[in-house]
Amino acid sequence: MSSGISLETRDLTIRFGGHVAVNAVSCAFGPGTLTAIVGPNGAGKTTYFNLISGQLKPSAGQVLLHGRDLSHLSAPARTHAGLGRAFQLTSLFPNLSVLENIRLALQSRRHLGLDLWHVWSHHKALTERAEQVLESVALTARRDQPAAALPHGDQRKLEVGMLMALDPAVYLFDEPTAGMSVDEVPVILDLIRRLRLQADKTILLVEHKMDVVRELADRIIVLHNGALVADGEPEAVIASPVVQQAYLGLAPVEEAT
Ligand SMILES: Nc1ncnc2c1ncn2[C@@H]1O[C@H](COP(=O)(O)OP(=O)(O)O)[C@@H](O)[C@H]1O
Ligand SMILES: [Mg+2]
User: Fold this and answer.
1) Measuring CA to CA, which of 53, 67, 116, 192 is 20 to 30 A from 170?
2) Which of 115-124, 203-212, 223-232 has the lowest mean pLDDT?
3) Can you tell me whether residue 185 is helix, strand or coil?
């Protein structure tokens, strides 16, 4: 595990009416690590991501990236700062082709503005990079189809491709394989596996399949009723009473392979 901190939340809290969905979560994440976030449905995992990415404003607490307080930035400004969350881009350009969607993500990262119609044909390098990204998410065959025409699983792969094109410092994956067919799941897991080898990337992964968590995670944190109730090495956390309790009867038991 690398030293240092990339992403940090301090006392991050949100209340919906009287309900505390995320309750004073303080946690730091280092570059070169993949942290799995587990917990029963309704534990606050997605809400925690929404607070980090700026979709939701906290009732209290801060989000820091490389020591900089992002708490007052909008979601797009946080994306720009290096926080990558797939769904922010999902529905952006349903009528553009798969390749054009990826190029757009590459373009936005390079701050070249949105005058794409003019510059695309001249940007051979951009197209080549977009093709590499497509290859890595196994969408080359879908290259010229409009994003809206893709089956659900391919749309999820496109989301991940667009996220990769942004090249964020922090990746937030919220159940990235949910709704995918059995043969599509390995493509996504393989991508996460490869991202994980990059020493400068910080990956947070919400995932219910414990065999996947065991394989990919350097660390597991557990949310329960919005609070961080366990944090540590995968085997120790999985064996802990709090996890055994939280999952007992609440999540399907996966056979470890
Ligand atoms: N926008 C919202 N308004 C009101 N309640 C919400 C909102 N978003 C999430 N919640 C509530 O916050 C809790 C945590 O939800 P969520 O973060 O989606 O859980 P998880 O992703 O762990 O399954 C749930 O009780 C949910 O109903
Ligand atoms: Mg969720």
Assistant:
1) 116
2) 115-124
3) helix
Would you say residue 88 has pLDDT above 70?
no
Q: Whose CA is nearest to atom 1 of ligand 1?
A: 16
Architecture of domain 1-82+169-257: 3-Layer(aba) Sandwich (3.40)
Q: Which atom of ligand 1 is found nearest the CA of 47? A: 17
3-state secondary structure of 120: helix
User: Please, where are the H alpha helices in the chain?
Assistant: 45-53, 75-81, 98-109, 116-119, 124-136, 152-166, 185-196, 210-216, 234-239, 241-247
pTM for the full predicted model: 0.88
User: Does residue 80 sit in helix, strand or coil?
Assistant: helix
Contact partners, residue 189, CB within 8 Å, separation at least 6: 177, 212, 216
Interval 163-180 mean pLDDT: 90
For the chain, the structural domain boundaries read 1-82+169-257, 87-167
Pocket test for ligand 1, best of 12, 15, 16 (most atoms within 8 A of CB): 16
| Separation of CA 225 and ligand 1 centre (Å) | 10
Pair of tokens at residue 212: 């996947």
Q: Are 137 and 157 in contact (CB under 8 A)?
A: yes
Nearest CA to ligand 1 atom 27: 42
Q: Whose CA is nearest to atom 3 of ligand 1?
A: 16
Residues near ligand 2 ion, CB 5 Å cutoff? 45-46
Provide the token pair at 59: 């009732």
